[in-house]
Specification:
There is one protein chain. This protein has about 80 residues and is α+β, with helices and mostly antiparallel strands. The chain has a single domain, classed as Winged helix-like DNA-binding domain superfamily/Winged helix DNA-binding domain (Arc Repressor Mutant, subunit A). Helix content is about 50%, strand content about 10%. The protein is built from four helices and two strands, in the order H-H-H-E-E-H. A two-stranded antiparallel sheet has the order 1-2. It is globular and about 35 Å long. The C terminus is likely disordered.
Length: about 80
């Protein structure tokens, strides 16, 4: 897994927000963080590739997707340092 220092500060903020929110739709995350949806998807895909988040189908979500932190997160690592 890539060290947290390899993530941008914006990706770190998104990751912490996802962890605190639990499962969240990409559109809600984009609105809450005030990040353009296209850029948010790029960041979420990068976080997914690095196994920081899971993006799964959800028919009840407005986007049809939910983002969930995998449990390896910035907040927990910060506390351990």
């Amino acid at each position: 897994m890539e060290p947290k220092d390899e993530l941008s500060s914006e990706e770190q903020e998104v990751l912490v927000w996802v962890e605190r929110a639990g499962a969240v739709s990409p559109s809600r995350l984009s609105a809450q963080k005030e990040i353009h949806p296209t850029k948010m998807w790029e960041m979420l895909e990068h976080l997914r590739e690095l196994n920081w988040v899971i993006i799964r189908d959800d028919p009840d979500s407005a986007d049809g997707k939910l983002v969930i932190a995998t449990g390896t997160n910035m907040a927990s690592q910060s506390k351990a340092e």
